[in-house]
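=== RUN LOG ===
request id: a7f3
mode: sequence -> structure
chains: 1
length: 94
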Amino acid sequence: MKNHSKVGGQLLQTNKHFSDLKEKQKTKINEWLYIEYMKYRKSTNKLPDKEQDRKIICSVGQLVADAEIWIPEEELIKYYIAHKSKFEKRFEKE
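=== RESULT ===
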């Protein structure tokens, strides 16, 4: 089964996982997610609901696209959901 497609003249792996990214890319995405999470928490003083989670992921998705890091949106969603409690603990410590 073919798992690559040509987009904008570049060959992209369509079944890429978050773990396939370079360490610098993972770190950037993690920080962007935390920054957006922190902005929401500071402005509302509440945990984000599903609608706010989507907004956080969407804004980070734009940053990821601008940085020319290709990762499927589903992977970004899975990563955010898995690390949301860690973001909360980090926010509470600061």
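=== NOTES ===
Residues 24 and 30 are 10 Å apart (CA to CA).
The helical segments are 23-44, 50-66, 73-93.
=== END ===
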